[in-house]
Amino acid sequence: MLVEALDHLVKGVVDSPERVSVTHKENRRGGLYEVRVHPEDLGRVIGRQGRTASALRTVANALNGSGVRVDIVDTDRRR
């Protein structure tokens, strides 16, 4: 559910919604949601002084009910 919610929110912000992908990974520190966007949309998703990214993390934590990590990376960065 959280993957779909983040996907929907991020696609509403970017110019290239077809290049958005959200994946969930489990590691030692808990759940990690990785949001990948087109390099030109990275600034839009991060926002001024990180406000948009912070808002996305707030929504993710509210929907999940506990602390989760949300990383935002561009599609050109290696996986």
TrEMBL record:
- UniProt xrefs under Gene3D superfamilies: 3.30.300.20
Q: Does the keyword Cell cycle apply?
A: no
Q: Where in the cell is it found?
A: Cytoplasm
Q: Name one Pfam family in it.
A: KH_KhpA-B
- Which keywords does UniProt give here? Cytoplasm, RNA-binding
CDD domains reported for this sequence:
KH-II_YlqC-like
As given in the record, the signal peptide range reads none
InterPro entries with a match to the protein in the record: KH_dom-like_a/b, KH_sf_prok-type, KhpA
GO cellular-component terms in the record?
cytoplasm
Q: Which superkingdom is the protein from?
A: Bacteria
- List the SUPFAM superfamilies: Prokaryotic type KH domain (KH-domain type II)
User: Which is one GO molecular function term here?
Assistant: RNA binding
Query: Does the UniProt entry include the keyword GTP-binding?
Result: no
What this chain does, per the entry, is described as: A probable RNA-binding protein.
Instruction: Name the protein family.
Output: Belongs to the KhpA RNA-binding protein family.
The protein here is known as RNA-binding protein KhpA
Q: Which organism is it from?
A: Falsarthrobacter nasiphocae
